[in-house]
Structures are given as C-alpha cells and as structure tokens.
Write a structure and sequence with these properties.
about 50% strand; mainly beta; single chain; 7-stranded mixed beta sheet
Length: about 110
C-alpha cells in the first residue's frame, strides 16, 4: 500500500521559510517520479514542484527561485524547502506519486 505522509507545515510570517518533509513507503521510492502539490483555500489543487528519480527538478512559475524540491532515496524521503514565503503560498501541501496523494500539511503565511 502506497503511503505518503507530509509534515513540517505551520504558521509563518511573510518572508519566512519552512521545510516540508514527506515520508514515503509501500513502493520503490528511488525509482519514482515525485511531486509536491498544494491546494489553496477554495481553489483547485496545483503542481508546485516535481523531481525525477535521478534528481532532475521542475517548478511552477510561482515556486521558481523560492522553493527547492529534493529527495533522499536512502531514507525514502521527499523535501520541499520554501523560502521568501508569501501569503498566496497559504495552502494544504501534499506529496504525491502518480495518482496517490497522502495526508497533507497546512502552510499558513500571515503576519
């Protein structure tokens, strides 16, 4: 069974940073294409960033230059370092593999 558990969210002031983590199990993480998604309040889910098994990354325009996706294949962990956070980054963040999306973590950016 695929399990994805995101953590690390919280309340942060604009301009602050957070590091999200995702613990993955139930599949071969090291060979999996992984993504971070987010769902702002009242909006559709959107792609934030993706990372290939070999480490190649891609970002939504809204995340470029501020967010960094990374992975530790030895630990089956996915990360999202978020810097220079803005109120519009407020959302529930999910890690995802294919159609599987685990329990998300709430990120709130507010002063």
């Amino acid at each position: 069974e695929v399990q994805l558990q995101a953590s690390g969210g919280g309340l942060v002031q604009p301009g602050g940073s957070l590091r999200l983590s995702c613990a993955a199990s139930g599949f071969t993480f090291s060979s999996s294409f992984m993504t971070w998604l987010r769902q702002p309040p009242g909006e559709e889910i959107e792609l934030v960033a993706s990372i290939r098994p070999e480490g190649n990354t891609n970002y939504a325009d809204s995340a470029k230059g501020r967010f960094v996706i990374s992975r530790d294949n030895a630990k089956n962990m996915l990360y999202l370092q978020m810097n220079s956070l803005k109120p519009e980054d407020t959302a529930v963040y999910y890690c995802s593999r294919s159609s599987a999306r685990g329990q998300g973590t709430q990120v709130t950016v507010s002063s």
